[in-house]
Specification:
Layout: H1 3-16, E1 20-21, H2 22-29, H3 33-45, E2 50-54, E3 61-65, H4 72-82, H5 94-106, H6 111-120, H7 138-150, E4 152-159, E5 165-179, E6 182-189, E7 194-199, E8 203-212, H8 221-224, E9 237-244, H9 248-254, E10 262-265, E11 271-278, H10 281-289, E12 294-298, H11 300-320
Antiparallel strand pairs: 1-3, 2-3, 4-5, 4-8, 5-6, 6-7, 9-11, 9-12, 10-11
Helix pairs in contact: 2-3, 4-5, 4-6
Length: 321
C-alpha cells in the first residue's frame, strides 16, 4: 500500500474515531509510532488543521482533525454552485444535496459571517433550462455508476436519434456529464470501436454484466469533446467562416460560442467569424438558428448543404399554403 493510501486511511480513522493516541493509531494501521508521527507532520504541512489534547488519566496526547470552518462567502460559493441541481429529480446526488447544504451552513464560523450568508443567498439566482425529471431513469443511472465504479461492461438497449433501436450494445462507461439540462454518458462502444456520447434518457434498458474492462487512464472528457460544437463529435474537422450582419454582430462580440472563435471586424459593423470545429448536426442547427443574419462562407460543401436545407424549408412552407 502506498504512502498516500496510508495517510488517507489515517484521515478516515481520525474522522471515525476522534481523539486517538499515536499508539492507538499505530495499532489500527499496523504501522510504527514513528511512521504515525511522520504522517501527522505531512498532514500539517499540507494544510490540515490538527489539534491535540492531553488525556488527564494517561497524560498521553490525543489527536483530532479540527472541525471544518467556512466563511459566509465560502459557504455562499458552494451553495450557489449547487443551485442548478436543487430541483433535479431522479439524480442520485440530488436527494443528498439538502442535507449537505445544512452541514455547510453549520460550518460557518462566526455569527456575522452567517448573517452575510443569509443576506446574500437570495440575491444569487441561477436560471437554467427546464429541469428534467430523471426519476424514470434512476435505476439506469445507478447501473451506470456501478459500471464506472467497478469497471463493468454494460449491456444496453438504446434508442438513437439517428437510427433504429439498438440492442445488446456493449459499453464501457467512462464519464457522466451534464449539458444544457440533459445528462450524458461518455462510453467506449464495442459496436463502433470508439468513445461515443449517449443521452441517458434514451436508454431503454441497461444491465451490468460480469465482464470487466480496463479503463484507459489517458481518457479526458475535455479532450474528447475538444472539436465538438456541443456534445457530439463529428468525423471531419473544418474551418468554418461565417459572415455576421449588424446588429447581430454585437452578440458575437459579446459572446464566445466556441473556444476557437476568432472575430474579424468588417465594414458597417459586420463581422467575419472563424471556428475550428467538426461538422455535426448540432453545428448545422446552430447555423440555421441565426436565419438571414449569418451567411456561411466556408467550407463550400457545408454552405451548399445549408442552402438545400433552407430550400426544403421554404418548399414545406409553400406546401402548407
Amino acid at each position: 500500500m502506498s504512502k498516500t493510501d496510508n495517510i488517507v486511511n489515517m484521515l478516515c480513522l481520525m474522522a471515525q474515531k476522534p481523539g486517538l493516541t499515536v499508539e492507538e493509531m499505530a495499532k489500527h494501521l499496523n504501522a510504527s509510532e514513528r511512521t504515525i508521527y511522520r504522517y501527522l507532520n505531512d498532514l500539517k504541512k499540507n494544510g490540515y488543521h490538527l489539534y491535540k489534547t492531553e488525556d488527564p488519566r494517561s497524560s498521553l496526547q490525543r489527536y483530532r482533525i479540527a472541525p471544518l470552518k467556512l466563511t459566509g462567502s465560502e459557504a455562499l460559493a458552494l451553495v450557489t454552485t449547487c443551485q442548478p441541481f436543487f430541483n433535479q429529480k431522479g439524480l442520485p446526488f440530488s436527494r443528498d444535496l439538502e442535507t449537505a447544504i445544512e452541514k455547510i451552513k453549520t460550518a460557518i464560523c462566526h455569527r456575522d459571517e452567517l448573517e452575510h450568508f443569509y443576506k446574500m443567498r437570495p440575491l444569487y439566482t441561477y436560471l437554467s433550462n427546464q429541469s428534467k425529471d430523471y426519476t424514470p431513469w434512476e435505476e439506469i443511472i445507478h447501473t451506470i455508476e456501478e459500471g464506472m465504479k467497478n469497471n463493468c461492461i454494460l449491456n444496453a438497449e438504446y434508442d438513437s436519434f439517428s437510427s433504429d433501436i439498438s440492442r445488446n450494445r456493449k459499453l464501457n462507461p467512462y464519464n457522466l456529464f451534464w449539458h444544457n439540462g440533459n445528462l450524458y454518458l461518455a462510453a467506449y462502444c464495442h459496436k463502433r470501436s470508439k468513445i461515443r456520447s449517449f443521452r441517458v434518457d434514451r436508454f431503454i434498458s441497461l444491465v451490468k454484466t460480469a465482464q470487466k474492462f480496463e479503463r484507459n487512464d489517458d481518457f479526458n472528457l475535455g479532450n474528447y469533446l475538444e472539436g465538438s460544437w456541443r456534445i457530439y463529435r463529428g468525423m471531419e474537422e473544418v474551418e468554418l467562416k461565417i459572415f455576421v450582419y449588424s446588429p447581430t454582430s454585437r452578440l458575437f462580440r459579446e459572446s464566445t460560442y466556441h473556444h476557437t472563435q476568432k472575430n474579424y471586424e468588417l465594414e458597417d459593423g459586420c463581422l467575419e467569424c472563424v471556428f475550428e470545429v467538426t461538422d455535426t448536426p448540432e453545428l448545422r442547427s446552430w447555423l440555421l438558428s441565426w436565419g438571414s443574419q449569418v451567411i456561411i462562407q466556408e467550407p463550400k460543401e457545408l454552405k451548399m448543404d445549408i442552402q438545400l436545407e433552407l430550400q426544403k424549408c421554404l418548399e414545406n412552407y409553400q406546401c402548407l399554403e
